[in-house]
């Protein structure tokens, strides 16, 4: 019988084993010489194939950078060293965006999210955990809070090495950070409606840095999508965004994320509470230690840790100044203006005893380090294809509100191509959604709860638009020559103004949109006054340019110094106070809010949309002087003057072909802002932040005479076709840029005018205005009600002004027909769909619609052009059908 080789091997092994057993049975075992020999004779347990390799083996030939978490690098491999002493120990984890696409909100030099985090080891898996600081307890409630509110997993990876014997630490592969941790893919999908994802094999670490307080890794992530879908065969009613235009291939691009692991201060900074009479950013959470408080929300003021080196001195330098590093990308010609904007804040700190509290340093032009890491507060200059904003965010210690880092992003809106970007983007379409060009709030504010508008600031973009309108007007008057030293000084002053504003944000100050109303029109014409006090009581407002009417005196054109409110806000946040009396001293400081120079209102007061439409006409972006309604009238006059001067100038050899077009649209941009401010008066209420016990009403209706004045200004100015008369020879010569594929079309004057009028109608006929006018009698005494303005009066005035030709028999011009259709569209929509308007408002809409129907019927039999008669007939038909229809009530 034949056997296989394996069978023969098995039989041989069995024979040997039996022989061995026989020998053992015949020979008694020898006693072990000692215990060590017995141990040596014992079989070793098999090695665990899944156990991590020795630290030295993994890190062989790798170079290390010592730091909070040491970094090891070898070729394209990067490891983080995790000391066991740092497990379960909180630190600050932040992400910044160093490089990006350069369009539609994806810009370089943007501060990203931050959170208090810790490393946790679960078996052989290391987890990066974002801690939940929204709900807190120190006492017996700690356990229940921990059970109720979960933390979040940011990322995880397997342990890569065994522990280092002396260092008591282990290595992990840092490539777990080459992932879309900040959620950039959502931002990309929002902008382009394309599913971009991280291509990890083509993602790398571009740079690393570490010191005792910080470990930084810059991940260069490759985002890609397999294909760009073909456009639909039939155009969609909703326009779809184009794929990325600023990259060579829209399927592929790189984004640099700067990951910072920063040690939290061992000694907690002293906290300071918020007072709503001033505007400071805050760290907010719910305190669940006590169930006796009616409101368990706690708000800690955000501020840098600033302590006197000599506490006994009236004026002392700080132990550690607030230092801003000026990015090497800032053009040489603008560096002095940027530095001046930073250092201007020292004036406020000197008032409370600090000398050189704020320091500006210039990053060397040959520096090989990136000031986007979490150890450098910086001013960064960046560019983009469609960019026009500055932003002043910061990262804070969530335990105390202490500001630990800030990176101001400043786009080059004052230099290359800014006139084209600003004028064409914002003039004719001033009320379209600019959010596509702004940094994503989720990336600006991060994971932890904060105010929606805390750091998102488009002041630079809007200020640049203001600057170009001012330069256009001053050049047209002959006051400033293009490209002259005076024009350059003008631009430098604007840059200083914007930097002061953004530095104010990084010092903890929010916007103040009432500050501009503290200076009278007379004071604005006094150059000595404006140079000493500014044109507003705060650089934290969006301040318009102080342009005089023809014949008026000229003060400062824009803010060049801090205002009274800025000194007050810094005093409240940073003044050294004794802990025993701090609460009383802060109340004394805040109680000065009754000073008219210290009036305050934030973004929500100025209006952000929805129910927060901005009901207080004193809280506005880009107005000036103590009478916002007067400012609107003045801006209308200035826009008309610019249009007249540009038309009178005509076209000269060597002109930029699109110059006149930009000037035309700049005037529309000014009117858009002024019209919104004027419309706030109708149904408006002034708001006070004083506590009820102070004896000042929280909400006070605007005087009826002022409301009627505003309504008349809009109907006689904005709704009038005579406000927008342009010479045919001027319009026919508004050139486009024939070097560009998307060069534009003939100027759409009708669209630009209708955009302004549509915005005013939205507010005048909107739900918030209707509700306030209907509720108005409840705020007035019996005597005051007699002269009060009513919703019926507002609706009637609007309708009479818009359809005035029906009774006069005058020809209805094209611009007027556009406006009338816009009004009729709102009326018919409300008649058929109802909408969220209050019932009484809907009744009034129907009441006035019946009157309009009668006026249209009477006008239908009159003469006029074919266009007028067709328009009247079509309007009558649409309105009659709407009045007959059954309302669809939800």
Chain-wise SSE layout:
Layout: H1 5-26, H2 35-41, H3 55-58, E1 63-65, E2 71-74, E3 77-83, E4 91-99, E5 110-122, E6 125-130, E7 135-136, H4 142-148, E8 152-158, E9 169-173, H5 184-192, E10 197-198, E11 204-211, E12 214-224, E13 252-262, E14 282-287, E15 297-301, E16 322-326, H6 335-343, H7 346-350, E17 358-362, E18 377-382, E19 390-391, E20 394-396, E21 403-411, H8 418-426, H9 441-445, H10 459-477, H11 485-506, H12 521-524, H13 527-533, H14 564-574, H15 582-590, H16 603-606, H17 628-649, H18 659-679, E22 685-687, E23 699-701, H19 704-718, H20 728-731, H21 749-764, H22 767-775, H23 782-785, H24 791-802, H25 805-808, H26 814-833, H27 839-860, H28 866-884
Can you characterise this structure?
It is a single chain. By secondary structure, the chain is α+β, with helices and mostly antiparallel strands. The protein has a domain at 55-228 and 245-262. The chain is 36% helix and 15% strand. A hairpin with a 2-residue loop joins β2 and β3 (77-83).
